[in-house]
Amino acid sequence: MSDHEYTPKSKFGKWFNDRLPLLTLANHLTDYPTPKNLNYWWTFGGILTFCLITQIVTGLVLAMHYIAHADMAFDSVEHIMRDVNYGWLIRYIHANGASMFFLAVYIHIFRSLFYGSYKAPREIIWIIGIIIYLLMMAAAFMGYVLPWGQMSFWGATVITNLFSAIPLVGEGIVTWLWGGYSVDNPTLTRFFTLHYLIPFLILGLVVLHIWALHVPGNNNPVGIDIKKPSKDTVPFHPYIVIKDAFALLMFMIVFAFFVFYTPNILGHADNYIEANPLVTPAHIVPEWYLLPFYAILRSVPDKLLGVVAMLSAIFILAALPWLDTSKIRSAVFRPLYKQFYWILVADVLILGYVGAMPAEGLYLLIARVATAYYFIHFLVILPILGYKERTLPVPLSITDPVLGGIPNLAGVRNNESLKEQSLK
Amino acid sequence: MSEKKTNRRDFLFTATYAVGAVGVGATIWPMIDQMNPDASVKALASTEVDVSTVIPGKTITVLWRGKPVFIRRRTQDEIAEARSVKLEDLKHPEKDEDRAANPEWLVMLGVCTHLGCVPLDQKGEYNGWFCPCHGSHYDISGRIRKGPAPTNMEIPKYEFVNANTIKIG
After folding, report:
1. Parallel, antiparallel or unpaired: strands B158-162 and B144-146
2. First to last CA, chain B
3. How does B25-36 read in b/e, with b if 16+ C-beta sit within 10 Å?
4. Is A177 exposed, middle or buried (0-12, 13-18, 19+ CB in 10 A)?
5. Is B134 a catalytic residue?
6. CB contact under 8 A, A303 and B148
């Protein structure tokens, strides 16, 4: 929180603020000193807040019409689509909103990976972010079950069966999750309850995420610590607010394109067939945003190890601040890391592609190589790179290089590049 | 620091913590156990099936506890094939005799032991069942032969009530 004291101008404001310092908080949020070189990759935090609010508001009104019962859920969703005023619009916003949410969160995560935003002193912000991401996946999965179509039913069956891989207690846990001996009405009602709850948990964690962010302040494309406030910063309002708003508008154009022109392209046609416990669809695929992890699950031929690999792929991210041993944050000054970063991006995209394909032949081989590389990136390449890489000189402030000043040698942290500079 | 003597207050603390822990546990347990199968679900534990119309070489699928059960009337060739498999070749070694007491009738849960999909009849490399989800192959005794599934398809508890009726569960 900012250090300077704030006193409201009006007498009532002062009276109120002495009792509940809401105005101090509002003042902190508007004056919050922000690095002036933040690029558009930094606008996705605001976009994600918009996505969360959109999902909560549209979800709230959908819940007024939806019926969480195995015999009625499918029909109630069709009732929303055909009978409820603007029901089609609200449901399409909610369904595509989930995809947009994940699109934005992946950009947000990969921005952190590029600019080293997870490094000290921002480890807690990062870990809260990973927990939010996990909750998002849980919410998205349970939400996908609610229409009670074929993909809903069999997706729920496959994912809950992941727990049966746990030795000894696995079967008991699955029966407990189902509330029966298969996915059925008790499963649907509890998924609806949890699907309603989780967004509010996420909202609480978002507050902590932003609170933790406001302690050290934003990272920035140069990745250096800056003085706040200083010539390197601008107040959050109006500078960042207007930039975030513009980026949000651009994002909403993409969002609206999906909602109005191709509302079903990200879904699966099989989910317009009502759930049937006797017939499994020929090809079960999760939603696109879970495909890389699905590919990792299928690439391991052992049931338990496949589940372990899939969960490790997510939890390994939480350990990232300690796996990446480099002290330099931004990839701008890490020529080797920058290349490995783009290989990782390609690797995840490849995993996503093979996750949508049948697990056989060449696809399976590619999935195995890509899975192995994913873990090698985090467990081998990143720890070693921190010691081996010759990084470029880092400027002392954001303003210095812009004004044409030579990089101050005192600000160069890497000994190798320091020598190189002094030889010239 | 001198050695601490156990006094009456320590005893009171320990006793209070113990009672508190039991109380918290007793309060939480109903919240957890309510998610387990309820009485109405458990009440549907058995199903009777008329199998008089099933001819050799055909499988019928019935629903038991929300799960599909395959009832296959096997041909003589299939029985011979199932009984000739060596146990060393099996990932989960089980004799066909133990899986189908009456060799003509194979009654098993039609649920893949990998992640719970319903395998397809007369498909796969072993002329038994094939799971389309993640590619597990089962033989004509429902035993896992190839793919990620860890165990054979499960045999539920069942009995012949008379020559034409099977009671599952």
Report:
1. unpaired
2. 67
3. eeeeeeeeeeeb
4. buried
5. yes
6. yes
- A184 half-sphere exposure, CB direction, 13 A CA radius: 19
A305 touches chain B (CB under 8 A): no
Per-residue model confidence as pLDDT tens for chain A (424 residues): 444 578 999 999 999 999 999 999 999 999 999 999 999 999 999 999 999 999 999 999 999 999 999 999 999 999 999 999 999 999 999 999 999 999 999 999 999 999 999 999 999 999 999 999 999 999 999 999 999 999 999 999 988 988 888 999 998 999 999 999 899 999 999 999 999 999 999 999 999 999 999 999 999 999 999 988 888 999 999 999 999 999 999 999 999 999 999 999 999 999 999 999 988 887 888 999 999 999 999 898 888 898 999 999 999 999 999 999 999 999 999 999 999 999 999 999 999 999 998 877 899 999 999 999 999 999 999 999 999 999 999 998 888 776 765 554 444 445 444 444 444 4
**Cα angle: A208, vertex A214, A215; to 5 degrees:** 95
Burial label for A282, CB within 10 Å (0-12, 13-18, 19+), is exposed
Alpha helices in A84-169 (DSSP H): 87-115, 123-145, 150-161
Decide if B37 and A158 are in contact by the 8 Å CB cutoff: no
- Burial label for A65, CB within 10 Å (0-12, 13-18, 19+), is middle
CA atoms of A279 and B68, how far apart (whole Å):
9
The torsion angle over the Cα atoms of residues A17, A18, A19 and A22, rounded to 10 degrees, is 30
Q: Are residues A176 and B35, on separate chains, in Cβ contact within 8 Å?
A: yes
Say how far apart CA A354 and CA A350 lie, in whole Å. Answer: 6
Nearest of B136, B130, B135, B125 to residue A360 by alpha carbon:
B135
How many A×B Cβ pairs under 8 Å?
A: 85
Please give the angle made by the CA atoms of A144, A146 and A276, to the nearest 5 degrees.
95
Contact B66, A181 (CB under 8 A): yes
Q: Looking up tokens 């930094």, which residue turns up?
A: A42
Catalytic residue among B92, B114, B134, B137: B134
Answer yes or no: do B118 and A280 touch at CB < 8 A.
Answer: yes
A residues 252..281 contacting B (CB < 8 A) = 277-281
Q: Is the ipTM of this complex over 0.90?
A: no
- Nearest chain A Cα to B114, which residue? A303
Tokens 């250090």, located at residue: A3
Task: Please tell me the total number of residues recorded for chain A in this structure.
Answer: 424
User: Cβ distance A162 to A307 under 8 Å?
Assistant: yes
DSSP string, A216-246: T----TT-----SSSTTEEEIIIIIHHHHHH
B146–A contact, CB cutoff 8 A: no
